[in-house]
Amino acid sequence: MEYLIGIQGPDFVLVAADNVAASSIIQMKHDYDKMFKLSEKILLLCVGEAGDTVQFAEYIQKNVQLYKMRNGYELSPAAAANFTRKNLADYLRSRTPYHVNLLLAGYDDTDGPGLYYMDYLSSLAKAPFAAHGYGAYLTLSILDRYYRPDLSRDEAVDLLKKCAEELNKRFILNLPSFTVRLIDKEGIHDLEKLTLGAK
Amino acid sequence: MALEDVCSFKERPVQHKWFSFSSLGDAAIPFPKSDYYNLRLETSENNCGVPLHFFIPPLPHSSSFINRPLSSFCPPKNSMTVQRPFRLAHGTTTLGFIFQGGVIAAADTRASAGGLVACPAVHKITPIHSHLVVTSSGSGADCMLWERILIREIRLYQLRHGHRLSIRATAKLLSSMLHPFKGTEMCVALTLCGWDNGPKLIYVCSDGARLQGDVFSVGSGSPYAYGVLDRELRWSLSKGEAISLAREAVFRATHRDAYSGNNVDLFHITAQGWIHIALHHIMLAVKMCDLSLLCHYYVQ
Questions:
Q1: Which among A55, A85, B14, B216 counts the fewest CB atoms within 10 Å?
Q2: B270 found inside a domain
Q3: Mind listing the domains of chain A with CATH numbers?
Q4: What digits encode the pLDDT tens for the residues A28-54?
Q5: Predicted-complex ipTM score
C-alpha cells in the first residue's frame, strides 16, 4: 500500500515517500507527509500500522532532540539508526510491539551520507538504496540495474522517476504523488513533488 | 465528572457484576475486590496505569489478541465473558468539510445493531465546546463515553490554564487517550470539526490515526458520500450550497448503505461558533424506477 524509497549518492541521500493516507479502501488524505525530521540532517521515513507510525516516529524524534538539548551536540545518523533499532527491538517482545517499517537517511559531517533500512522485526541494514512496501518488489530490480555509487543528483532523481513510472504502470494501487527530499551537507532540501498522471 | 476531579472526590471502585468473585481462582488479579458496603475495602492495584477510572471487561482469549494483548492487565483465566447477542456493526455515515464559510458537519441518525435499527434518532454530532463539534462513528457506546471524557478534559484544561486548547491539540490529546486501548475491541472514529484561528477538520480513530484535512467522511456509508462530495465540493460554495451538498451526500449514502438512514443532522461551524441546522427528514419519492427524484420535507 505505502511506498518508501531511498537512494544514496556520493555526497547526498535522496528519499521519497508516497502521499496517501488510507483507511481500508478509502484514501483519506492525498497529501500526507510520511517523513519526520529528526534533526537538521536526519530524516526518518515511517510506514506501517495506523497509529504506531506517528506514535513511534514522534517518540524517536523527541528523544533525538532531547539528546541534543542534554549533550549540546546532535546524534549522528548511525547513532540515531541504532537508537531507533534498539527501541524497536525492546518493544518487539513487549505487550505493545510497534508494527512500523522505516528508512532513516542522514548526512554525517565526518562519515558522509548514510541510508539505513529497518523493518518491523527491528532488523537494521545500511544500504546504498532501499525501498519499503509492495512497490519495493517492482522497483528494487530497477535500482539494482541502474544504480551506481557515483550518481549525480539529477541522475538520482531520474532513477527515482523511473521507479515511480514503473509503479504507475504495474502497481494495482494508485499512488498519484510522492514527496521527495534530499539531504546533503547543507541540510534537508524539499524537491518538487513527483506527480504522475494516469496511464 | 469534572466536579469530581476538581474536588478530588475519591471514587469507589465499580462493582464487577459481570463475573462472580468465586470464579476468580487466581491470586494475581489486578481488580479491586471490594465488598458491597465498603466495610473492609481491599484495594489491590487499581487501574494499572489506565488513565481513566473505568474498567475494561475481561476479553475472550482468541488468537487475534495474542499480537497485541493489553498493556495494563491480564484477564483472569476462568472469567465469564459477556457474549453479545448481536454482531457489533459500525453502520453510519458522517462527513465534514471545510469551505469558505466555515466547516460543515453532517451525519445520519440511525443506530443499527446487526440488522436491527436500534434507534432512528440518535445524535451522532456532539458539541464539545462553543467552537468544536465532533461527529462519531463506530461503536455508539464507546463514542458517547469518549465524547464525554473529551468534554471533561477540555473543560478542565480551560479552567486550569485560562485559555481553550487548540483543535489540533485536542485531537492529539484524544489520540493519546485512545492509544492504550489500541488492539482491543473498542472502535471509535471521530471527526473534530471546529474553528480556532481558521476552520479545522481533524479525523481521530481508535486505531491511532490522526489526520488533518479538508474533507472527511467516516462510516460504512462513507464511500458513497465521498462519491458525491468529491465531484461537487469547492472552496467557493455558498452556505446554502454547502448545506445542500452535505445533505445530498448523506442522503445518497443512506440510500445505498443499509446501516445508515432516517434523518440528517447538520452543524455549521464559523468563527462565531456552531449552529445546528434543523433535522431534515429524508424522503425519497420513487416514481417508477427514477431514483433521481428527491423530495425534501422540512420538519421543524
A1: B14
A2: yes
A3: 4-195 (3.60.20.10)
A4: 999 999 999 999 999 999 999 988 999
A5: 0.85
> Which one of A31, A95, A99, A120 makes the best mutation probe of the B interface by having the most chain B beta carbons within 10 Å?
A95
Yes or no, beta carbons of A49 and B205 under 8 Å apart: no
Torsions phi, psi of A159, nearest 5? -60, -40
B137-B174-B107 Cα angle (round to 5): 25
- Give catalytic status of residue B92 as yes or no: yes
Query: Could you tell me the residue range of the domain that residue B151 belongs to?
Result: 94-298
What is residue A161's DSSP assignment? H
Q: Are strands A26-29 and A35-39 parallel, antiparallel or unpaired?
A: unpaired
Number of domains in chain B: 1
CATH number at residue B284: 3.60.20.10
pLDDT in tens, B251-267: 999 888 888 888 899 99
Restricting to A residues 34-53, those with a Cβ less than 8 Å away from any Cβ of B are 49-52
Q: Which residues contact A50 (CB under 8 A, 6 or more apart)?
A: A23, B205, B207, B208, B209
Q: What is the mean pLDDT of residues B178-196?
A: 91
Q: Active site residue: B43, B81, B92, B170, which one?
A: B92
Residues of A in contact with B226 (CB under 8 A): 26
